[in-house]
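STRUCTURE REQUEST FORM
Protein name: NADPH-dependent F420 reductase
Source organism: Streptomyces synnematoformans
Requested output: structure tokens
Priority: standard
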Amino acid sequence: MTSSAQNTPPARRDLWELPDVSGLVVGVLGGTGDQGRGLAYRLARAGQRVVVGSRKAERAEAAAAELGNGVEGADNAECARRSDVVIVAVPWDGHEATVAALRAELAGKLVVDCVNPLGFDKKGAYPIRPAEGSAAEQAAALLPESRVAAAFHHLSAVLLQDPEVERIETDVMVLGESREDTDVVQALAGLIPGMRGVYAGRLRNAHQVEAMVANLISVNRRYRAHAGVRLTDV
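Status: completed
Returned output:
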């Protein structure tokens, strides 16, 4: 007779054997925008040390003061210098210029791109495909001395910033060239209650993940929701 324990599938390595990221400083470029502020707030609320960056230090410092939880503010270059992991959460139209200007400061860092190249017309949101293939691949091309991953694309800025929301029930699809780096990003995602980081392939597949945000925008408008993504059987 087979025991229930024998019928239980083995735990998957990438969902439970993740590194300790408690000592890492996380910088958020674009930390004064809705998505950046929300990510900074959630990570800091989970106990992570966070630095938000902006083109102007004064604006970043003001945002940090509003976010509380020990969040610090600095201009983008200083934010990059002071951080171990840097999340890029700037608007798509400023993505290339912002990333290119910080090549020296981001050298040797793990850079996590969560930018979604989108256009909007009377029919709604639609994905844009950059020449490099995706925003994450553009960042990788601009930052040859950095390690670039892609994640945090499908999160609702409204939910992230709402202090009344205790849990955000969603998965974070994480892409990158190094499993050590994607493990770090998965661990950071897992700090936020209800959230789970799931490895989803290499950067060449980032376009599909970025493009899905156009579909979620349509879902949210139709159903007046803040939809995310949940993967089954993982």
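Reviewer notes: The CA atoms of residues 40 and 87 lie 9 Å apart. Strands lie at 25-29, 49-54, 72-75, 85-88, 110-113, 118-121, 124-127, 147-150, 170-176, 195-199.
Form closed.
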